[in-house]
Amino acid sequence: MAENGAPRGRSTRMTGKERREQLVAVGRRLFAEKGFDMTTVEEIAARAKVSKPIVYEHFGGKEGLYAVVVDREVSTLLSDLETSLFDQRAHPRVLMERAALAFLSYIDENEDGFRILVRDSPVSHSVGTFSSLLTDVAQRVEEILAAQLRLHSYPPKDAALYAQMLVGMVAYTGQWWLETRKPSKEIVAARMVNLSWYGLSALQKKPELGAKREGTGGKREEPGESRG
């Protein structure tokens, strides 16, 4: 008993929800630093200052914790990208700019989360991976491209292929930019869209490789859309 009858202070115990969030934060950091395979339950427990059974109680093991971390990162990134592509009335180039900037902004603000997403996931974790997320994004981009291809009398079936190319370019460039952080994300987004947009605006309807094209005199089809 303290002086004047006042009880001694006690450290505040976390609620179950608070403890779970603490473990998610600790796991997120460790998975980003070391990867799934090199992270152990012992390390997670030690950094959170709890016993191993606490980790198992909340997540059943590191696989369960990893799944929660990845699913949250996927939801955050996909939500940001879907928001950037929401306005159907916006010009396709504007949508591409918004999506590219949203992707880079996620990387900038969630470095640990992005590092986790681009690492190889455990075999037991087949959903919520970076590749499946990019597939979802590519499907959304495909819808936008298909509408534009139809508008300019191009084969809409090519939309899926072009969508994969565009999303792959953004994803790979994002991984490179994570390590360099130069130039600014705004400049990187503008350059990516500049390359992809003017490539799309000058599409040939039936592109061929150069060797085969030489047999036709090398004549190039006119762009389906002028560069505005």
UniProtKB/TrEMBL annotation:
Residues 208-228 are annotated as: Disordered. Gene3D superfamilies: Tetracycline Repressor, domain 2 (1.10.357.10). It holds the Pfam family TetR_C_46. Signal peptide: none annotated. Residues 40-59 bind DNA. Keywords: DNA-binding, Transcription, Transcription regulation. Residues 17-77 form the HTH tetR-type domain. It comes from the Bacteria. GO terms for molecular function: DNA-binding transcription factor activity; transcription cis-regulatory region binding. One of its GO terms (biological process) is negative regulation of DNA-templated transcription. PANTHER family: HTH-TYPE TRANSCRIPTIONAL REGULATOR RUTR (PTHR30055), TRANSCRIPTIONAL REGULATORY PROTEIN (PROBABLY TETR-FAMILY)-RELATED (PTHR30055:SF227). This is AcrR family transcriptional regulator. It comes from Brachybacterium aquaticum.
